[in-house]
Task: structure prediction
Amino acid sequence: EITLATILSACADLGSLSMGGEIEEYILRSGLGSDLRVQTSLIHMFCKCGSIKKAKEVFEKRVLKKDLAVWSCMINGYAIHGMGEDALSLFHKMQHEEGIKPDAVVYTSVLSACSHSGLVKDGLQYFESMQRDFGIEPSIEHCSCLVDLLGRAGDLDLSLKAIQEMPIRVQAQVWAPFLSACRTHCNIELGEFAAKKLLDLNPGSTTNYVLVANFYTCIGKW
Result:
């Protein structure tokens, strides 16, 4: 089972749906389809390879006893495909119908779902509720999602305020979505400010240099 999970993870990283499908056929022929770790890996692979329909099929029809990890995997699948309403509906079902308590990882997926679907009000409420109702302290991943949520919606001032008031040490990871939002909404002043912060915090990152280059190209300064 561990080997199959590793192979499926590799298929997910490569985006190879055809190879992942062949592994699924082998799993079913071998009678390993009921193993929860394998099922979770299948869902993850299908989501990463763009087949949310197949992921949902495995989740709903094959996984009979769902743990937190498999719920989190499916919620994250909806999130990365911009299916925010589906992600939140599943999150609600997990808590109120199945009685499963969410953890920090699930909340990252929920906040990401809100961000990619423009559900600003919901995202802000979930950011507060994870602390108030479950005692989950915001991580850098949660804070990055919050910055992205506000930035995508065009509220750059509030997004910047969220960075400045973070309860944890600010890292380059939070400036990246802010810079992307500045590029999208053509805010040169804040974008140049974010670009400097990004490079100061992590000067050796090729990814960050690409983000900065894309920003300056967009505003005609490259």
